[in-house]
Design brief:
It is a single chain. The protein is mainly α. It has 18 helices and no strands. α4 runs antiparallel to α9 and α5 packs parallel to α15. The longest helix has about 35 residues. It is globular, with a radius of gyration of 22 Å.
Length: about 425
């Protein structure tokens, strides 16, 4: 039993959340008034809160560098795209279109549903995060705000947690390296090695997430936020339903409309990579199988070898949808009043951050920070998502891979016409 717990992070998170809830319930049943009013002054409580402090601090420390290295390596791996303007342009256009549909679906459904019950009355904003007022709701003001955020020294951006600037610089640096250096230059191997190292470090940090979950759930439970678990369950159900809607109806309908392929033929042809994506939660690990399935469906090797690697880097429909819904959920949960501008920022940042999401299990958690910072939502909210993020990750990764293969079918059809 111990080996099973030690080897399963989702099980550890569930157990940590359950233990925190049980502890809070026991304490409040014995002395509810004393516990709730004086708990923050207690030494034992401050000690338990260190788990959240350490986890969030380490996450802030590495996330900027991780996003930078991931994007630069991803761009270097798809360098041949830049040499094929027609194929590259059509691929980017289709990926952008489907991602916009996914984010719109997630935000639209979230805003139409009743608001989630806030867990606390007043939650401080994350360090360095600012809310955008109604006076800045015009298109020009939004563009100015985005440019001011994006055009920042990369060192300062990493230090200040400005991931939008990190993304912009990474794209510029990746394209510049591809233009200036040969494809097999040793520098690309160095970048790949650094990226593997930082991902290993992030994997170690993620192992501390049960401590953060325990602290956050204990904190919410002691403040009377007993609705956390029921709301998480409803949130997970909403994300699952929207992800299935996008994967079973929206994407296949686009494939049918643009290529004429039948639903049965499509799903039969992509069943193997979808199963692999579901099992591994990694679009990168599924890439070889995706390329084989695409070619069996009639996609030319020249198209699949370009479109699918690019898709494993930037086509994350399921991730973008999840981040959009999660941002609305967490904003309402933490009592953050989102203006029209804030919603537009979430829309844009969900698209941008999904492009930089690593093709690995829970890879969207790094990009999720970008969305939270844009909306002024506390970064510790990420730890709440980890309770149910991993199971949802399997489904959205499958949708991401499905979108890659459908894009290959569509782009190949355009190239032949």
């Amino acid at each position: 039993m111990w080996n099973k717990v030690r080897g399963s992070l989702p099980l550890q998170l569930v157990l940590a959340a359950g233990a925190a809830w049980l502890l809070a319930t026991s304490l409040t049943s014995v002395a509810p008034t004393i516990v709730i009013t004086d708990v923050e002054q207690q030494a034992w409580y401050q000690f338990l809160m260190l788990g959240k402090t350490v986890y969030i601090g380490l996450l802030k420390m590495v996330v900027g560098i991780m996003v930078m290295l991931s994007l630069i390596e991803g761009i270097s791996n798809i360098g041949a795209i830049a040499k094929l303007k027609s194929l590259g342009g059509r691929t980017l256009a289709f990926y952008t279109f489907t991602t916009m549909i996914a984010v719109s679906l997630g935000l639209g459904a979230s805003l139409l549903l009743p608001a989630w019950q806030p867990l606390t009355q007043a939650v401080p904003l994350a360090e360095g995060a600012t809310l955008i007022g109604e006076q800045a709701a015009s298109g020009g003001a939004i563009a100015t705000k985005l440019l001011n955020m994006a055009l920042v020294n990369p060192v300062a951006a990493i230090a200040g947690g400005n991931l939008l600037a990190v993304v912009v610089f990474s794209f510029m640096m990746g394209i510049s390296l591809l233009t200036a250096l040969p494809e097999k230059h040793p520098l690309f191997e160095v970048i790949s090695g650094l990226n593997k190292g930082i991902n290993t470090m992030v994997g170690g940090i993620i192992k501390l997430s049960p401590l953060a979950i325990f602290a956050i759930v204990l904190e919410f439970s002691l403040k009377g936020s007993t609705a956390l678990f029921s709301q998480l369950a409803m949130f997970a159900l909403l994300v699952f339903a929207l992800t299935m809607l996008h994967g079973l109806i929206v994407l296949p309908s686009l494939a049918k409309l643009l290529t004429g392929i039948k639903f049965i033929t499509l799903f039969k042809g992509i069943s193997a990579p979808l199963a692999m994506a579901f099992a591994t939660s990694s679009s990168a690990a599924t890439l070889p199988l995706s390329m084989k399935s695409a070619e069996e469906l009639g996609v030319s090797p020249s198209t699949s070898s370009m479109v699918l690697p690019l898709g494993s880097v930037m086509n994350m429909d399921g991730t973008a949808l999840f981040e959009g819904v999660a941002a609305i959920f967490l904003a309402q949960l933490f009592g953050v009043d989102l203006t029209t501008t804030g919603i537009v920022m979430i829309f844009i940042m969900a698209m941008v951050s999904s492009i930089g999401a690593p093709g690995m299990p829970s890879g969207s958690m790094s990009g999720m920070q970008l969305v939270l910072l844009a909306a002024g939502i506390p970064l510790e909210a990420i730890a709440i998502l980890l309770i149910i993020e991993r199971p949802l990750d399997t489904f959205r990764t499958a949708v991401n891979v499905e979108g890659d293969i459908i894009a290959a079918l569509v782009v190949d059809k355009w190239q032949r016409s």
